[in-house]
Amino acid sequence: MTRRGLLSGAGQAALGLGMLGALDLQPVYGAQNGRAAHDYGVDFGEEALVPGRVSVQDKLNIALIGCGGQGMSNLNTFMGRKDINVVAVCDPDAKRMGKAAITVDDKLDQTAAQIKDYRKVLERKDIDLVINATPDHWHALVAIHACQAGKALFTEKPISHNILEGRQMVNHAAKHNSVVQVGTWQRSLQQFIDAVAYVRSGKLGKINLCRAWKVQDPNAAVMGKEATKPVPADLDYDMWVGPAAFVPYQENRCHYKFRWYFNFAGGMTGDWGVHMMDTILLGMNKTDDFVMPTKVMSLGGKFFTGTDDDRTTPDTQIALIEFPGWMLQWEVHVGNTKTGPNALAGSATTGRDHGALFIGSNGSVLVDRSGWSIFDAAGNPVEKPAAIDTGERLNGLPAHVGQLVAGTKTKAVMRSNIASMFKTTTVCHLANLAYQAQNVLHWDAAKEIVTNDKKAMNNLSYQREYRKGWTLPKA
Q1: Domain Gfo/Idh/MocA-like oxidoreductase N-terminal: where (predicted)?
Q2: What is the pLDDT of residue 336?
């Protein structure tokens, strides 16, 4: 049988766990590699993208858990480095897992073991770092178990399905001194870094209102009505559902589309809010130890898709989030790419499909993934920033990954460290929690509880009961 034959299907058993016991596999990345320390925010390890040979002792052994689109994007970025070995890929969908293994073979000429159960991946002593690109309802368990297993971790956003899960992720990372980078790579994208620095400089004067938004494409918003179907032969659906409440299989709520169901995720507020509201929080605080909100309200519904649609998260949502001394307006709706909030009335700017806007007494700053702009109090553009490099390095993911790879040795604080990203994710969860509770919620940040509506904390964005067989570890 050819190597590709082994990877693609019938020969998968030959790469299973049975043969692993016969191998004396040892970690190849450790203190002996002599890699110099990297200061936070200075060296992201991008030099490792340069082609060349690296000794075995200098290579980091990694595994991918979750082989969907986001997982493969992350894996391809890791494989773009010269200091990476891909040891294993993991997914309850054998078809996706097989494709991931073929990609590793094509790009690195390496055979990655295919392992359906992520716990078997974490048991392996030859794996230094895992990529957690599972659906949102799996993020907490995989991340906590990775910390317990002593692995460095790249975990996708939002870090958790709900607030209580996020708290336990932070606690376990601290307990085990884990190196964790959250996949909010906008923090490693230069225009966001520059825009945040400008806002922090105080040049905008008093900022009492900020806006952040995301417009969803109509084709992606509609789930339609589907009947339950037989589970595809390649998918272990029971494992895919995992700790979430069990619902019969439907194609329109599995894989990518899980995002639009509160049982599995947080809708557009969890998916993009954690990017755009994070930028606002970075700008409005001098450090990433954010001051948290005191009140949150949110209204919306399925105004575009209508009630005859299986999605449970709103396609239209506006949240008002009150912080000490200022407010944030978060908006989600369905439309074309030019139907974002008109950033500055009377200015030449058009609507954008996503953005973060800081409105000050002296002017405003608008930033999105296309760049950033500064406007005076009248809405006129001023101090045009230097042109953004449109090459590959415009994507902050390589820099984000590079800092993590360096940090596995140096234990440096990650740019998207889990303690900071827990705060951003909690703000997103609070917006959804207020929507679910249909109430203005008063938030006690120190105790991490709602003080005026205790019943609100029974909703999915605050906590959930784990399905039998699964337990959220407490630290």
Answers
A1: 60-183
A2: 75
Q: Domain spanning 3-133 has what CATH number?
A: 3.40.50
Q: Which CATH superfamily is domain 189-385+419-458 in?
A: Dihydrodipicolinate Reductase; domain 2 (3.30.360.10)
pLDDT at 341: 57
Region(s) of the chain under CATH 3.30.360.10: 189-385+419-458
The Cβ-side half-sphere exposure at 319, using a 13 Å CA radius, reads: 32
Q: How far apart, in Å, are the Cα atoms of 184 and each of 118, 156, 450?
A: 23, 8, 27
What would you report as the CA-atom Rg of the chain, rounded to the nearest whole angstrom? Answer: 22
Residues 6+ apart with CB under 8 A from 197: none
All CATH 3.40.50 domain ranges in the chain, comma separated = 3-133
Give 155's strand partners.
132, 182
Below-70 pLDDT ranges, the chain: 1-57, 337-351, 384-395
Please report the pLDDT score of residue 221 as a whole number: 95
Q: What is the H or E stretch that residue 218 is in?
A: helix 218-221
Whole-angstrom distance, CA of residue 288 vs CA of residue 283: 9
- What is the predicted pLDDT for the residue at 352? 81
Q: What is the pLDDT of residue 58?
A: 81
Question: What residue has token string 């609507």?
Answer: 351
The answer to whether residues 122 and 162 touch, using CB atoms and an 8 Å cutoff, is no
Q: What ranges make up the beta strands (E) of 66-137?
A: 84-90, 113-114, 129-132
Q: How many CB atoms lie within 10 A of CB 323?
A: 20
**Based on the number of CB atoms within 10 Å of its own CB, is 448 exposed (0-12), middle (13-18) or buried (19 or more)?**
middle
Q: CA 54, CA 59: separation in Å to the nearest integer?
A: 7
Question: How many CA atoms are closer than 13 Å to the CA of 256, on its beta-carbon side?
Answer: 9
Instruction: Retrieve residue 166's tokens.
Output: 């996020």
Q: Are 285 and 197 in contact (CB under 8 A)?
A: no
What integer pLDDT is reported at residue 370 of this predicted model?
87
Instruction: Give rounded-to-5 percent helix, strand, coil for the chain.
Output: 35, 20, 45
Looking at residue 346, what is its pLDDT? 38
d(CA 298, CA 436): 9
The angle formed by the CA atoms of residues 314, 318 and 320, to the nearest 5 degrees, is 135
CA angle 234, 136, 223 (to 5 degrees): 70
Write phi, then psi, for 188 (nearest 5 degrees): -110, 20
pTM summary value: 0.88
